[in-house]
Design a protein that fits this description.
The complex is a heterotrimer, with one copy of chain A and two copies of chain B. Chain A is mainly α. Chain A has helices at residues 33-43, 53-69, 76-93, 105-130, 160-175, 189-202, 211-218, 225-241, and strands at residues 149-157, 209-210, 245-249, 256-260. Chain A is elongated. Chain A starts with 32 loop residues before the first helix and ends in a 16-residue tail after the last strand. Chain B has two domains: 13-95, Arc Repressor Mutant, subunit A (Orthogonal Bundle), CATH 1.10.10; 113-234, Arc Repressor Mutant, subunit A. Helices cover 41% and strands 16% of the residues of chain B. Chain B is built from eleven helices and eight strands. In chain B, the strands form two sheets. Chain B has a four-stranded antiparallel beta sheet with strand order 5-7-6-8. A three-stranded antiparallel beta sheet of chain B has the order 1-3-2. Classes of the chains: A mainly alpha, B alpha+beta.
Amino acid sequence: MSAEILSFETGRPAELAEGEPALVVDVEGYEGPLDLLLALARQQKVDLAKISILALADQYLQFIEAARKIRLELAADYLVMAAWLAFLKSRLLLPEPPTAEGPSAEEMATALANRLRRLEAIREAANRLMNRPQFRRDIFPRGNPEVIAEIRHPKYTATLYDLLTAYAVQRQQNVLASVHLARRTVWSLVEARASLERIVGMVDTEQWSCLDDYLLRYVVDPTQRATVFASSFAAALELVREGEMELNQKEAFAPIYFRKRLPQPAPDAVSAPDVQ
Amino acid sequence: MASLAEKRIEIAQVEIEEVEQVQAEDSPQARPEELRLLEALLFASSEPLDTATLAKRMPDGVDVKAALAQLQAEYAPRGVNLVRIANKWAFRTAGDLAWLMTRESTETRRLSRAAIEVLSIIAYHQPVTRAEIEEIRGVVTSKGTLDVLLETGWIKPRGRRKTPGRPLTFGTTEAFLSQFSLESLNDLPGLEELKGTGLLDTRLPTGFTVPTPSDDPTLREDEEPLDPGDLELALAPRVEPEGGNES
Amino acid sequence: MASLAEKRIEIAQVEIEEVEQVQAEDSPQARPEELRLLEALLFASSEPLDTATLAKRMPDGVDVKAALAQLQAEYAPRGVNLVRIANKWAFRTAGDLAWLMTRESTETRRLSRAAIEVLSIIAYHQPVTRAEIEEIRGVVTSKGTLDVLLETGWIKPRGRRKTPGRPLTFGTTEAFLSQFSLESLNDLPGLEELKGTGLLDTRLPTGFTVPTPSDDPTLREDEEPLDPGDLELALAPRVEPEGGNES
């Protein structure tokens, strides 16, 4: 809360006090121009209601003058107040213009006096408030409070509908349990033939290719291997019968090779290459 | 001390309208000041205070022990007592007012799916053993599920099956009927009604039956009475370890 | 009740050697049981309890207000007093024993002079806007000052003034009353004098009307409700840059 430090951040000008015997220029403690005015007013030692605003304005202006002389940086608030007081002072000293607009000088002075009274009153009230016994400073609550224990009784709810649904679902589940055979994925002959035709179309005509290699490349899922091989074999036989391709197998269980049947009927079957 | 007393009077006047209190304080039979001090210290302390600690805060020449004894006697008939705990002193609400310091509350909870399933089987198939329930549900019934059901008061162990192991048989209670607004167990819908409401599939195989439930407390031929202490047993933890397929 | 009394006697005998207390209890001038109950409830709680809450825990037919008044009178001369704060009741250590309790004290926040002034202005002038506070103090109120006060929980924004800019109005809280041991705002020290001088009203010429500070959450005619999010706003940094002459 050092924000109260108004503008005299340069520090207290204590060393200057010797040159200014009448007035100790120490603004650090003041809470703004009104506070300063109030402090000056108190020096008049009269009821604030009867205070001489003229004298107060003089004191204030004097203070500001002193502060400026020692080149203290005054906050704008103080200067605004100084200007206003100078204006008020001149109004108070000059005779009132006959058709004055706004409040008269007297009214302005009274308003200022009232502001000072109000500030002083609230200060006094604050003082009394802070002097009241304060909670946890002067008076204390129960240091070790005993809590009111809560005993919770669970109350369960369920509806007849819940009950019957639960029952029916369970009974049904067990009674209607039938054997679900996993559906086998089968490679149909049509699918196998279409694939073979594509494969045969891809390979070099003269070249024998290993059927297994191609099939393994296409069939990723090992569980489908059997059906793929079976269907492909059957489709291959079909294609051979139709003269679309040739098959070659060295011996039983050996890899089967295939190649595209050349358009012209080959008199001699080309022997299968000795692969590996 | 005079100024303190003055201050106290001031405060007393501000805070209390009863002026006689202030007088009472000044009267000859006023309580010794140390009782006020002890009272305040013990009240505000977050933990029990021992005599030595209290004595340190008292004015010289105060017999703290005697003062504590007097305070204890003063508070004995009150709602707050001065009690000694392990040689330390503290204010505590009177033991007989424990009921005042508790608040009972009911909280509504929904039964778990498993619990309602078990309950429905007990309702239709009673008297039924745990093994039979598990047979129907196809899963192991957790002890917790049965405990919750026993806690609801809707089921109870009613006897023991005359089979090896003498398993407990469970049945429903009157509270069950009341909970589900049933006049009697016969009001539970039968096979045809369940089919009619669409709860049971109409294409059920022949031979599928829904038992006609009965909560007749008379033991059946294959039941024998509960042993003494069976009720506690029913709530005791199951011995065998339970697997992950509980429900 | 007989068993309670018996139990109480039992406890008394166990804990206290003075048997005459037990006798005193059975004597015709025994205190009404409700005093014990209220005592226990209020003593146990560190938070003030309102009459309704207390009444709920009392047996039927108990005049809680009368019992509280009696209890307050009983405890007035003691080291622990029964005080009323914003229509709630709580036991608190006696204010004059502050000197004794200092060691119990946790570091109390020291408010700056500016904060104290602002707090007082809010207390005596509420509902009051920041501009009005500044009018009285003649100086710009730093955001920090208001923040510190909001943080204490003693003040709160309570609405918005129906004037251009819709400034927030501030008021005090229950915690404020509790902090300064005030039963209500009417107990603010010096309030009567302030009212008498007519200095309380910032907006009207002196002596015109005598407003009374009020923490009645009901908004005044010239107030409107807070917008959602205003509470955060009150704590958010002020938008306009603030000069060096804050306070």
